[in-house]
Structures are given as structure tokens and as C-alpha cells.
């Protein structure tokens, strides 16, 4: 094959923008723990014209808006080389990235609308990573390996899982998929290029009290692998690219200690995930660490260490033709043949009451609990008044789900949820990547993989490695099994196309697999094209206005100085007169907010040893009054840090008033005093 890899920043605004994932409007960005990246991999046939692109981006999920804009840009740059059928865009599912990149109304409620700078950062970052991969294509080889990751996941809805047929459960040793599948890439001389790992776990080690943008546990795994392979480079630099992509993580939590009542400390591992005092809002899962930062590192390191072992031992070469199959499907109206006599249908999208309960990884609001198969008269009344009552047809279609939001029947100011959904498989030789538009639960994913595997077998391509790539192309929430759907925990309440959603996807992906096996992908009907709404920006974010520094101070001045001396495992901390970090996101594509610099006696100069992509640094922004704000930079000095003289630097942009209505953006910087590490 010809192989190319690329990585590009897609962080976007790190302040004032809500974070995407927990749907908690209080959880807005207030700084940066680690940068977000898009990682792109292109594989092409050396002779033929066939190629496939796989992108894993450190974002909550790929939205339809992101995908359509990326495809538009690729078309204008590359013509028909990169298209909807051979480009897979997958989100890692971090819950600590900026929101606001959706065109469907439901997501605006917790995102403060459509936020152009957040959307642009993601779209441009993805396109740039593909550009870099495209420019770096070289002859190479691919190897596949698989292995088991221990101590890194639990099933967060075990009571749903237990509703699956006992005969089916007995075929598996665990209620989560512990297998990691890893694809290793090197050039023809054996130089290392990168890897993609697929593993099913929610990146929710950082909980919904976090305000620092970061890529969570799987992002930390990428960071560790890339730091090891790109020796001597700052984080985010260097040619080796390691993507830790999502899979069927729907009911899989990294918070391995399980659910406890925050107020009493007793277990709340019950079908409703509720506590005797305080109800469901008190039931929260704990990670393995003492705090969320440590839990993120522990889970991330587990994943990294297994990937490293699989990478080093990977010897099974991937060979064979490339192909890709894609269709757009109206998921609110799919007829599914369950057997010769029985046909069922999917439904217009709707969310159930338990959607509002959230999960043990991020609890919901008010008094909603998981597992409600009855509506609540009070909330139903509120909904009917505000949003209108669901039609009888939709109610009947979704049974036993009590509908909270009948999003498929809500069209103001335009649709609340997608109808048109991408289904897609790309095959690289013996590896088949199922790009799924949401979060399949453990058992849903197993059923889908097995059905696709059987389809390949029966049409003459046996021995395919079938892997699920999650959160691709368009976000449609969750996909549970029919049996899990009956008990209506959070994942089931969020299975938006009704009880037969999984059966519909299995039917569709079998069709794609058959087309690939028979080399007939060109005969697949394209399906109805998804809409691109004409909104460009519509947001409740405060506008960026002129800023000021306190009396006798200027931007970048130190307000609280570092100490003169630190030891490893201590925290060096400095506070500056700051400015809104959104100014930087909107004016600089590759902006670093901070560096840690070490003084070299040999060259008598300062050299950057860390940047803001490092997991050892934290950048906090806090807004004051009268257009003033502060920035605090922390360096959590790791064990093994070389003794010497260091300083912390801050780089920002402030808005300056130049006329009655006009402002300009002015760059500035600040530095702490020098300090000693002993």
C-alpha cells in the first residue's frame, strides 16, 4: 500500500464555550489541560485509484455539520479523490471538548447554539490532518494485532445487559468487550509511521465538574505513545501519529470502582441507579484514582501499555484490495425483515424520560431516574405546553419508551434530530471498519460484528477482521439491543429510532458487506442526501468586547509570582493579568497559551521543554469584572524532572478599543521569574 499519516490541532475556543458530552449547561470551558488533535490515516493501492481515509478526532462525536463541511473542503481541494464513501470521520468521544458544532436544534440547548469558531476549528483541523497525510504518502506495510485490556472498564448498565438472552450472554466471558484491535503502519524500510487502536471505553474519566479542555483517557494514551515515538519533540510535534479510536462503548464506563452515593458513600448499583437520600442525582461512579486527573492517567496508561505490547508484537500483515461502501438512509423509516413472516419498522426520532436522568458517569437534572417505562405526568404536562405532545403514532412506535422529547416531530427553527444517517464500511484488505453513527452498546456491537462477519463469510471473503469505529459521520445517540430497550435505562431512552434500531442497522450493514464481498459497491443506491442548513452562526455566547488591565498593570504582568525553588512532584504556579482565550482561538490557528522553559548554561538561552499540549501543565482563565481577567498557569512537576533553572511563559491576545465601535486584537506575552528545581 501507499500510506500517509497526519495530525493537526482542532482545539478551538477553550473558554466560555460549553463542553460537549454531559449535556450540563453549567460545564463551560475555563482553560486547557491538553490540546485536541485530529489524526488522519490514508491507505491507497499503489497501482489503482482506490484509497480510504480514516480520521480519529479528539472530539465528542462527529456531527453531520462537521462531516458535510469537511467533504465540501475536500472536494474543492482534491476533486473526487476523497468522497463520502471512502472518508471515515470518527470522534474519540472525549466529554471535555468544546460544543457548538451541530446543526440540529436539540444540541443547541446545551451548546449555546451553533458556535462558528468551535465548528471551524474542528473542520479545519480535520482537513489539515488529511492534507498532511496526503502530502506524506509513501510505500508502506500494515500489520494487525489484537489483545485483551484488563482493569479499564465496567458495564454501567448491567441490569440492561442481563435482559439479553441467557444463551447469548453465556457465549461471552464479560459484560464489556475487552478486546483491543490495533493496526500498525510502517514504511517499506520499516520506519514507524503510526497506529490506530480501537477499544470500547467511554472517555469520561474527567467528570462533569471539569472545566479544562482535554482529550481524556484515550487522548492521554495517544500522548504517551506519541511522546515515546517522537523523542525530543514537544507534545503535538513529530511525525509518528497514534490514534486511540472509539468503538462500541455505549454502556462502557472507565470508572471502575462503580457507582456510589456521593452523600453517604454506599453503593447505588441498582436498576434505577438511585440513592436512598438525594435520588439519582447523588449516584456517581468513581474511577480508580484519587481524583479525576489521576483516574484519567491510570486508565489512559493501561490502554497505552496494551497498545504498546500489541504494536511491538504485531506480525500479521494486512494485504488485499481496498474498498468502501456507503449509503445515506432515512433512519426514521426503515422496514426490517426479522424473518420470513415478520416485518417491523424504525420510528421518527424521540428521546425517553430516562435520557434526562443521565448516567452514573454524568447524572442528569431534576428528579429523573434511569429505567422509567412510565411517563411522569408533571414533566409530560410541561412538555405538552412548551413543545407539543408526541403523536399517537410515535408513542406507539417507541413503546415501552415514555417519550420526553418527540424530536422527530419538532421542526422549529429547523429539525431537532437527523433523519438521514450515514452507514459505511471501509475495507483495507482483511480489515473491515464499520463506521457507525453513534454509540452501540456492548451486545449491540457484538451482534453487528457477527452479522457482518457472517455476510462476508457467505459471499466468499472469509477471515475478515471486523472492527466497529464509533461516533462516525453523524450523531444519533445510542443503539441498544431490543431486549435492553425494554428496560429503558439511559442508553435505551437515547436509542432514538425506536426498539428496532439495531435490527435496522444490522440489515443495512449486511447489505454494505455483501456489496464489498461481491465487488458491487458501485451498485449500492446512494440514498437521500442529508440537508445542510443555511445557518452560519447562532449563539448565546457573550460577544468579545474590549478588555482592560488593572491600574498600573499591563496584559501579561505577573500578579502572583512563583516561588524561588521547587522539588519534583510539587506544583509551580503563576498568575498573570490575562485576556479572554477566545481571542487567541479566533486569531491564530496554531496558538500555544504557555511554555515551560529551561535555561541552558551552554547556549546562555531559554529553551521550551513543554507546551500547553503537555498533560503536566494546566492553563486556567478566570473572568473578573470591568473587562478584566486573570490567567493562572500550573506546572505539576513530574518525578524525574531534570534539576535546573526554569520559567513559565504565557502568550495571549487582548481586544483593544480603537474607535467607538471598533476593536483590534493585540498579541502579548508574560513570564514568571526564574525558579530552581532541586
From TrEMBL:
<dbReference type="InterPro" id="IPR038445">
    <property type="entry name" value="NCDase_C_sf"/>
</dbReference>
<feature type="binding site">
    <location>
        <position position="93"/>
    </location>
    <ligand>
        <name>Zn(2+)</name>
    </ligand>
</feature>
<comment type="similarity">
    <text>Belongs to the neutral ceramidase family.</text>
</comment>
<dbReference type="GO" id="GO:0046514">
    <property type="term" value="P:ceramide catabolic process"/>
</dbReference>
<keyword id="KW-0378">Hydrolase</keyword>
<feature type="binding site">
    <location>
        <position position="202"/>
    </location>
    <ligand>
        <name>Zn(2+)</name>
    </ligand>
</feature>
<keyword id="KW-0443">Lipid metabolism</keyword>
<dbReference type="Pfam" id="PF04734">
    <property type="entry name" value="Ceramidase_alk"/>
</dbReference>
<keyword id="KW-0746">Sphingolipid metabolism</keyword>
<feature type="binding site">
    <location>
        <position position="478"/>
    </location>
    <ligand>
        <name>Zn(2+)</name>
    </ligand>
</feature>
<dbReference type="InterPro" id="IPR031329">
    <property type="entry name" value="NEUT/ALK_ceramidase_N"/>
</dbReference>
<dbReference type="GO" id="GO:0005576">
    <property type="term" value="C:extracellular region"/>
</dbReference>
<feature type="active site" description="Nucleophile">
    <location>
        <position position="253"/>
    </location>
</feature>
<keyword id="KW-0479">Metal-binding</keyword>
<feature type="domain" description="Neutral/alkaline non-lysosomal ceramidase N-terminal">
    <location>
        <begin position="1"/>
        <end position="507"/>
    </location>
</feature>
<keyword id="KW-0862">Zinc</keyword>
<dbReference type="GO" id="GO:0042759">
    <property type="term" value="P:long-chain fatty acid biosynthetic process"/>
</dbReference>
<dbReference type="InterPro" id="IPR006823">
    <property type="entry name" value="Ceramidase_alk"/>
</dbReference>
<dbReference type="GO" id="GO:0005886">
    <property type="term" value="C:plasma membrane"/>
</dbReference>
<dbReference type="GO" id="GO:0046872">
    <property type="term" value="F:metal ion binding"/>
</dbReference>
<dbReference type="GO" id="GO:0046512">
    <property type="term" value="P:sphingosine biosynthetic process"/>
</dbReference>
<feature type="domain" description="Neutral/alkaline non-lysosomal ceramidase C-terminal">
    <location>
        <begin position="510"/>
        <end position="677"/>
    </location>
</feature>
<protein>
    <recommendedName>
        <fullName>Neutral ceramidase</fullName>
        <ecNumber>3.5.1.23</ecNumber>
    </recommendedName>
</protein>
<feature type="binding site">
    <location>
        <position position="439"/>
    </location>
    <ligand>
        <name>Zn(2+)</name>
    </ligand>
</feature>
<dbReference type="GO" id="GO:0005737">
    <property type="term" value="C:cytoplasm"/>
</dbReference>
<dbReference type="InterPro" id="IPR031331">
    <property type="entry name" value="NEUT/ALK_ceramidase_C"/>
</dbReference>
<dbReference type="GO" id="GO:0017040">
    <property type="term" value="F:N-acylsphingosine amidohydrolase activity"/>
</dbReference>
<dbReference type="Pfam" id="PF17048">
    <property type="entry name" value="Ceramidse_alk_C"/>
</dbReference>
Amino acid at each position: 500500500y501507499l500510506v500517509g499519516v497526519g495530525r493537526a490541532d482542532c482545539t478551538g475556543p477553550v473558554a466560555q464555550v460549553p463542553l460537549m458530552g454531559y449535556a450540563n449547561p453549567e460545564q463551560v470551558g475555563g482553560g486547557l489541560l491538553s490540546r485536541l488533535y485530529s489524526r488522519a490515516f490514508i491507505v491507497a493501492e499503489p497501482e489503482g485509484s482506490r484509497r480510504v481515509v480514516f480520521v480519529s478526532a479528539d472530539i465528542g462525536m462527529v456531527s453531520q455539520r462537521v462531516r458535510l463541511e469537511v467533504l465540501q473542503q475536500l472536494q474543492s481541494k482534491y476533486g473526487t479523490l476523497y468522497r463520502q464513501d471512502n472518508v471515515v470521520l470518527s470522534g474519540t468521544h472525549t466529554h471535555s471538548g468544546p460544543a457548538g458544532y451541530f446543526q440540529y436544534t436539540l444540541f443547541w440547548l446545551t451548546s449555546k447554539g451553533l458556535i462558528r469558531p468551535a465548528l471551524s476549528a474542528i473542520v479545519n483541523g480535520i482537513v489539515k490532518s488529511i492534507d498532511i497525510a496526503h502530502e506524506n504518502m509513501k510505500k508502506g506495510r500494515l500489520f494487525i494485532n489484537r489483545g485483551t485490556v484488563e482493569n479499564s472498564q465496567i458495564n454501567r448498565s448491567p441490569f440492561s445487559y442481563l435482559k439479553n438472552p441467557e444463551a447469548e450472554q453465556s457465549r461471552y466471558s464479560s459484560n464489556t468487550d475487552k478486546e483491543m484491535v490495533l493496526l500498525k503502519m510502517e514504511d517499506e524500510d520499516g520506519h514507524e509511521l503510526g497506529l490506530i487502536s480501537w477499544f470500547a471505553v467511554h472517555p469520561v474519566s474527567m467528570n462533569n465538574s471539569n472545566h479544562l479542555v482535554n482529550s481524556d483517557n484515550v487522548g492521554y494514551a495517544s500522548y504517551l505513545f506519541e511522546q515515546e515515538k517522537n523523542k525530543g519533540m514537544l507534545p503535538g510535534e513529530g511525525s509518528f501519529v497514534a490514534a486511540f479510536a472509539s468503538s462500541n462503548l455505549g454502556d462502557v464506563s472507565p470508572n471502575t470502582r462503580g457507582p456510589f452515593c456521593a452523600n453517604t458513600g454506599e453503593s447505588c448499583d441498582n436498576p434505577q441507579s438511585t440513592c436512598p437520600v438525594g435520588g439519582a442525582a447523588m449516584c456517581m461512579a468513581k474511577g480508580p484514582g484519587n481524583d479525576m486527573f489521576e483516574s484519567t492517567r491510570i486508565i489512559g496508561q493501561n490502554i497505552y501499555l496494551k497498545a504498546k505490547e500489541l504494536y511491538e508484537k504485531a506480525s500479521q500483515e494486512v494485504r488485499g484490495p481496498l474498498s468502501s461502501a456507503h449509503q445515506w438512509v432515512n433512519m426514521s423509516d426503515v422496514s426490517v425483515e426479522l424473518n420470513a413472516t415478520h416485518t417491523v419498522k424504525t420510528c421518527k426520532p424521540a428521546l425517553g424520560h430516562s435520557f434526562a436522568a443521565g448516567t452514573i458517569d454524568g447524572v442528569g437534572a431534576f428528579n429523573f431516574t434511569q429505567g422509567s417505562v412510565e411517563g411522569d405526568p408533571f414533566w409530560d404536562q410541561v412538555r405538552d405546553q412548551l413543545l407539543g405532545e408526541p403523536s399517537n403514532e410515535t408513542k406507539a412506535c417507541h413503546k415501552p419508551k415514555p417519550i420526553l422529547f418527540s424530536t422527530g416531530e419538532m421542526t422549529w427553527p429547523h429539525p431537532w434530530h437527523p433523519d438521514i444517517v450515514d452507514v459505511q464500511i471501509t475495507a483495507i484488505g482483511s480489515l473491515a471498519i464499520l463506521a457507525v453513527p453513534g454509540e452501540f452498546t456492548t451486545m449491540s456491537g457484538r451482534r453487528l460484528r457477527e452479522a457482518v462477519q457472517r455476510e462476508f463469510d457467505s459471499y466468499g471473503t472469509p477471515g475478515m477482521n471486523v472492527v466497529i469505529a464509533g461516533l462516525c459521520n453523524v450523531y444519533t445517540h445510542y443503539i441498544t439491543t431490543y431486549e435492553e430497550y425494554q428496560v429503558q435505562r439511559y442508553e435505551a431512552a437515547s436509542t432514538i429510532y425506536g426498539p428496532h434500531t439495531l435490527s435496522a442497522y444490522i440489515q443495512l450493514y449486511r447489505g454494505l458487506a455483501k456489496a464489498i464481498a461481491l465487488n458491487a459497491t458501485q451498485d449500492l443506491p446512494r440514498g437521500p442526501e442529508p440537508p445542510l442548513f443555511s445557518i452560519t452562526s447562532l449563539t448565546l455566547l457573550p460577544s468579545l468586547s474590549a478588555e482592560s488591565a488593572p491600574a498600573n498593570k499591563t496584559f501579561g504582568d505577573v500578579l502572583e509570582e512563583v516561588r524561588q525553588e521547587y522539588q519534583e512532584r510539587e506544583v509551580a504556579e503563576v498568575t498573570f493579568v490575562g485576556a479572554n482565550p477566545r481571542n487567541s482561538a479566533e486569531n491564530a490557528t496554531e496558538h500555544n497559551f504557555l511554555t515551560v522553559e529551561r535555561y541552558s548554561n551552554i547556549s546562555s538561552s531559554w529553551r521550551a521543554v513543554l507546551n500547553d499540549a503537555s498533560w503536566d501543565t494546566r492553563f486556567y482563565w478566570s473572568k473578573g469584572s470591568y473587562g478584566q481577567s486573570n490567567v493562572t498557569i500550573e506546572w505539576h512537576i513530574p518525578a524525574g524532572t531534570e534539576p535546573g533553572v526554569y520559567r513559565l511563559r504565557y502568550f495571549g491576545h487582548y481586544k483593544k478599543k480603537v474607535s467607538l465601535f471598533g476593536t483590534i486584537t493585540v498579541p502579548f506575552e508574560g513570564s514568571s521569574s526564574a525558579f530552581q528545581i532541586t
